[in-house]
Each structure stands twice: as C-alpha cells, then as structure tokens.
Specification:
The protein is α/β, with parallel strands linked by helices. Helix content is about 45%, strand content about 15%. The strands form three sheets. A seven-stranded mixed β-sheet has the order 2-8-7-6-5-3-4, sandwiched between helices. The protein has a four-stranded antiparallel β-sheet with strand order 9-10-13-12, with helices on one face. A two-stranded parallel sheet has the order 1-11. The longest helix is centred in the C-terminal third of the chain and has 22 residues.
C-alpha cells in the first residue's frame, strides 16, 4: 500500500469517526438472510398470485403509465380508493413507501416533547432502529410471560417518562398474538403522547382499532398491503385525525409513492374481493399447521392471530440449517433471552405447508 493509499484510508476512517455519531455506528442494520430456497416461508408474504382476470387488468393499467413523468405527488386517487375500502375519511389517510417510511415520518414529526419512543419487546425491530437513527431515546418494556402487554409496568413507564410515541403491534411480530384490547385502550386513555397501533396483520385477526381513531386524537393506526398479497408494491397506510395527518404530511418526501405502485394498487383494491378468499384459506392453513406443530414434542408452538406461527424448538440453528438443506426457508430468531431457540414460519400454500411439516417429521424421526 502506497503512502497515498494509507492517507486515503486514514482520512476515510477519520470521516466516520468525526462525522458519524456513535449511536449510528453502534446500530446493527435491519437485515434478512438472503438464502435461495424453493419453498420460502420466512417473509410473512401471501403465497398467492393475482387471479388471471385481475392480472390482465394490472397489465393493461401498467401500459398506460408514462414512466418519463413523475407520479401523482399526493396519490389522490389511490387515497380515495383506500378511503372507500376502509370507510375512513380520506383527509385522515396518509400513504408511505411501506409502513417503514410511515414509522420514520411519525418519529420525525412527533418527538419534540420528551424525545422518547416506547415499544414492547420482542416486537418489530424497525420501531427501535428507526428511533435510534433519528436520535430519539428508546424505552423498551418486556412483554409478559404470554407475550401480552405488561400493563402495570408500561403504565408506570408512561407516567414516569411521558414518551412522545408508543408503538404497539397487534397482532405482534414475531410472536403472532394480539395484545389484549382492554390493555391497549387503557394505554390510549392514559398516554399524553401518540399511541401507534400497527395492524399489519389485522386482516388475519379480524379485529381493528380503526373506529376508535375518530374518538381519540392521540391514536394512529398503521396498515399495509404487504401481508395480503402485494408486498412488492410497498404500500403502507396511516389513519389518524385530519389535524395530525396534516402535520405528518409535511415531512413526507416528494413523490414517495411511485407510479407503478399507485396504478397497480388502484387496480387490486378496486378488485379486492379475491383477497378475502386468500385470507380465509391462510387462516385455515394456519390453524392446521399450528395443530400439527403442537403435536410435536420437541416444539412449543404459540397460538397465532397473524399469517405465521411463532414456535420454539430444540437447537433452532440446527433445525434451520436442516430445513435449508431440504430447500425450505423459515425465519430463525435464535438469540439469548426471550427469543432463544425461537423461530417463525409463514403460512404458505397447502402444498408448501405440507412440505414443511413433512420435512419436520423427517428431521425429528431420523
């Protein structure tokens, strides 16, 4: 290495140390293992493609897009359709490039009070990661032994710390269960800051807090199209009071919903009847897979209100690798603490689920 190269390397290290905060350097980025397997049951996506008639409508709609032009900056038509489908006023709806962008917009807009964000653990990691990246202080509160909210502990923390934002994922990821509705309602009534109920998996639970938004000015609901068949579109939806949406919209990046996502989302939401059939099939398959998993002695499966099942197995790392060898990919959460030897399997097609269960039988009987 020449003296010039050494100087360049030294300068690069100096930039990182002098210009990147220690908080950022300490963060482990969000990552998903990239492993090619024939059967992919790790991402909580729907396994079902569009019906042929809807696919034709999508193809025709895409042909009408002028790629050389910017998309509708407000995604007005898509918001009108979301409003109609959700029966929620359009002025209280904001769209994001996935729920991840909306989480960032919420933290940017609403952390000028205490500067603190509260979230139970274990839960969706992007709440903590995004808050840390944006300079907020993160308050974590462990879930109880049933992975439900520890109400006394969280109310005490709210009283002592007055968090600007409280993120509650119900059904929760990765545990799959809904939090007690009465506990969420109590938190909403006590909190002075904004309570965000992330309902990414509510289509599979059949329960929503959406009607309560009109009564509670500090309640925000997040939804997504990603879990019901349209993960590739990256459409997140935020529902809140008109005043709150008006402020959050100020930090939204221009043209955040691209033309392709807008147009395709419009088509699928205008022809969304088929989605209900897919959801019901996934629910039936979820219950079937849970029953089989529960019958395996070396596995502890947890009841699910989502489109996946959270379970604990002996030596999760070994089981994960053996499944990959059989061309089946699930999510391995194994780490010290509450997630030790814990795993998550997405509900796939009946054939994919059969393959997963058959592979488990072979692994544990060999």
């Amino acid at each position: 290495m020449t003296s010039k190269d050494k100087k360049s390397e030294s300068e690069a290290q100096g930039i990182v140390e002098s210009r990147v905060s220690q908080e950022i350097r300490d963060i482990t980025p969000y990552s998903v293992p990239h492993i090619d397997c024939k059967i992919k049951l790790d991402g909580n996506e729907s396994p079902f493609s569009l019906p042929q008639d809807v696919q034709k409508k999508v193809d025709e709609a895409i042909k009408q897009i002028d790629i050389n032009r910017y998309p509708d900056p407000e995604a007005e038509r898509l918001i009108e359709i979301v409003s109609k489908v959700s029966e929620f006023p359009k002025d209280g709806i904001l769209l994001g490039n996935g729920s991840d962008e909306l989480i960032g917009m919420l933290i940017t807009t609403l952390t000028s009070g205490s500067g603190k964000v509260l979230c139970p653990t274990p839960s969706f990691s992007m709440y903590k990661l995004t808050a840390l990246v944006m300079g907020a202080e993160v308050l974590e509160i462990p879930l109880d032994e049933n992975f439900d909210i520890d109400l006394d502990s969280i109310l005490k923390l709210i009283q002592e710390e007055d968090p600007d934002l409280i993120f509650l994922a119900s059904p929760n990821n990765p545990t799959g269960n809904m939090y007690s509705a009465s506990k969420i309602a109590e938190i909403i009534s006590v909190a002075k800051g904004v309570v965000v109920v992330d309902e990414a998996y509510s289509d599979f639970s059949g329960y929503t807090f959406l009607p309560l938004v009109r009564e509670c000015e500090n309640l925000v609901i997040l939804r997504t199209l990603s879990k019901v068949g349209f993960a590739g579109l990256r459409i997140g939806m935020l529902f809140a009071s008109e005043d709150l949406v008006s402020e959050i919209n100020k930090v939204r990046y221009p043209y955040n919903i691209n033309s392709l996502s807008q147009k395709v989302s419009e088509v699928v939401l205008e022809n969304h009847e088929f989605v209900s059939e897919s959801i019901q099939l996934i629910i039936r398959e979820r219950d079937r897979v849970y029953k089989v998993l529960s019958s395996i002695k070396v596995i502890e499966a947890y009841p699910s209100d989502a489109n996946f099942i959270f379970f604990k197995a002996e030596d999760a790392d070994s089981l994960f690798n053996k499944l990959v060898e059989k061309d089946i990919l699930i999510r391995n959460f194994n780490r010290p603490g509450r997630l030790e030897n814990c795993m998550r399997v997405t509900i796939g097609t009946p054939e994919e689920n059969d393959a997963f269960l058959s592979a488990l039988t072979e692994i544990f009987t060999s």
